Amino acid sequence: MENKKKSTIKDIAAVLGLTPSAVSKALNDHPRISDKTKKAVKEAAIQLDYQPNYLSSALRKGKSNLVGVIIPRVNSHFFSSVVENIEKVLNLNGYNIIMTQSNELYAKECQEIDTLLKIQVDGIIASMANETTDLEYYQKIKSKGTELVLFDRGEEELNVDYVGIDDYKSSHLVVDHLVSQGCKRIAHIAGFNHIRIYKERIRGYKDALEKWNLALKYNWIIESNLRIEDGRRIMQQLLDAPEWPDAVYVAGDIAALGALQVLLENNIKVPEEIALIGFSDEPFTSLTQPSISTINQHSDQIGKLAAEAFLERINNPKKKTVNRIILQPELIIRQSSSKLLK
Amino acid sequence: MENKKKSTIKDIAAVLGLTPSAVSKALNDHPRISDKTKKAVKEAAIQLDYQPNYLSSALRKGKSNLVGVIIPRVNSHFFSSVVENIEKVLNLNGYNIIMTQSNELYAKECQEIDTLLKIQVDGIIASMANETTDLEYYQKIKSKGTELVLFDRGEEELNVDYVGIDDYKSSHLVVDHLVSQGCKRIAHIAGFNHIRIYKERIRGYKDALEKWNLALKYNWIIESNLRIEDGRRIMQQLLDAPEWPDAVYVAGDIAALGALQVLLENNIKVPEEIALIGFSDEPFTSLTQPSISTINQHSDQIGKLAAEAFLERINNPKKKTVNRIILQPELIIRQSSSKLLK
DNA sequence: TATTTTTGTTCAATCGATTGAACAAATATA
DNA sequence: TATATTTGTTCAATCGATTGAACAAAAATA
């Protein structure tokens, strides 16, 4: 309750006997303002604890220096790490981010987009909810002239900048490794085929099986939301069938954890009887017993590159070409798939 | 790139042959505007896809309708659930939230506060970082006239609205239950004593031991950051000592998970040889083998009440009294502390 | 009919910062 | 000395919405 007054450029102008516009120019290092005045103004600004009014300058300049980030859920190391890195890069460039989560719900996602457009963010960096198939709201972002960058979950037809990993190749890494461990009957607990990244993982999985002349059984590709309960349910389902796989490739770590729980509860030796590989390198994968092999998606890089893609677009508004940055996945081999590490 | 034009009240006014101010008043249901005009204006607004310019109205009204939420980390069910509920309540009341995380770092926290004050949020709802002992930045929020509500981790001397649980009582629930299970040598993997909530848990633990005439061993109270590696390290330390506890009460679930891992790695039967209880009811506590007993902190309620405390303060700016809302903790008994459930 | 009240709208200032144009003073050039 | 150039500052409009005061027209009252 001490100094509620909040000083403005007017106050500074009054103290120094200048006009507000001179003060504004001095603070913005306008070339026509003398060094002496600039110095005096900046000192007075500090004296008066002056903070520029963000709203007024945003209004005048027509930009808010705010960037919205929409992620499916916050409670995931991958997404929170991406956001952290987006924030790091953008803060350095004078932007602040507004983080929102869709909870994997299309309706929530639309609402978040509306909110972000309402508060006039300069751009939106997003990863789409599992549910999302209708791209209308994303078209809306573009049609309003707001920049849009997608990462991880993004559709090509939107024709915007995208940062992700090579999901097709990830599956090859997984299958190649499992084959090298002697596995021949590899099942895939997959994400939904209507989402590009999961579709790519499925495609890579199929092609890799074919590459190694392994049989492709369609009831060994089971799509789901990849929550922990999905992993549990589907693993149980696989065990209930007459023929067991000798390896399971899960398109998400959380679901892989669920699968692992069921395997252990059934006293199945991992990896000896059934090997297991997840996806995303969530921290807990290194902490389970046995630890879970997984794919590193380079979340830090993704965040950094997504932020840089946004900045580049802001700085070159007339740029027409679209960037698609595809990072190389990395297989992290742990106990759940390697007899040697056991 | 279709309709970049973004219509304003001017456009509506031009279409209807009115002045911008009449349009503004019509949209805000001013009593002196005829119903006929109001209807026409509202229809035209829809026709032109008019969206009020948030920045200008915020500037004029002197409020942004934005609320900053600072949490130590996003990657925790407790905090993300609180945020979700804050958001739910505030969205209904026309506010949007900006979520930021301090990563438990004091420096980051200060920076986040500066950012939020810069973009002129109407209030800040925060839970303090583990590192924070200097309250200067929080004083700053108040002195700028921005509303402040704390939850979970908050200090009384700041004299602001607070929502949390009764941490002292939580420890009693834990100790009472452990005693009922026949435990007599209860250790406490604690949070730092300089943070009020952890201090309260320690105090409750001590008093509860005394209540049951159990010996209090000071080297069985070990403070830490409560990360997973802290739980592991301290559990190992307890096992390396000559006398083992027969129960361990951990002030955080993540650290409890680390402790559980070490117990299992050492083939110690949980709860028969050593019982274990965590804190916060993180989802994974029900998924481990054995599942971990823990304290439910009512994160949904905390979020809702914190948001409501903010709203009440905004609506009654002259209100002087401070609300301290203390919820009752609930002990969730699972396998790690109950021989019956094993 | 004259006067007051009510109703519907416009006028003009405002929020705080920004910016091109205008202007005056100082300095340089012809 | 007269003119052109540079320099430092002020003027005034602007971003879009809001709001109290002012005003004119319509309706109600005396």
UniProtKB/TrEMBL annotation, chains A, B:
Residues 7-61 form the HTH lacI-type domain. It comes from the Bacteria. It comes from Flavobacterium flevense. GO terms for molecular function: DNA-binding transcription factor activity; transcription cis-regulatory region binding. This is LacI family transcriptional regulator. PANTHER family: HTH-TYPE TRANSCRIPTIONAL REGULATOR GALS, LACI-RELATED TRANSCRIPTIONAL REPRESSOR. Keywords: DNA-binding, Transcription, Transcription regulation. InterPro entries: HTH_LacI, LacI/GalR-like_sensor, Lambda_DNA-bd_dom_sf, Peripla_BP_I.
